[in-house]
Write a structure and sequence with these properties.
By secondary structure, the protein is α+β, with helices and mostly antiparallel strands. Helices cover 35% and strands 19% of the residues. It contains five helices and four strands; from the N terminus they run H-H-H-E-H-E-E-H-E. It has a four-stranded antiparallel sheet. A hairpin with a 6-residue loop joins strand 2 and strand 3. Helix 2 packs across helix 3.
Amino acid sequence: MTLPAPASASIDTISKQIIEQLQQDGRRSYASIGKAVGLSEAAVRQRVQKLCESSVMQIVAVTNPLELGFTRQALISVVTDSQISATADRIAELPEVDYCVITTGSADILAEVVCSGDEDLLRVISTIRGLHGVLRTSTFTYLSLKKQEYNWGTR
């Protein structure tokens, strides 16, 4: 999913509270959220729909890749010769890529991949290395996941 540029309009306090409620429990009912934020169930439903349609948030099932047979995760750093954005777009299209960002520093692009095993990871690395404009890659294979959270709030 390609995210749009950030909206220029700020999100109001009630919408932020709804987001925080859903970050705590994505299955929380609209009625329960409504009680917590002082809105009706219908008003919460409308706001959630607008927040999703405007790409402010997504409501998804976060899974444990290991339990689904994806035994190899890695972060791949990519250095390009030019056309950083176009290269990042091509990398982001790969189904194994779950996160792709343009960065500063020694790498132009960082891509997180979820693969079924080492051979699958090798195939993905080879695919990325074969893209036009890619000069080199470095792969950081995950050995142990210590923390993965999506509840940073709305600060």
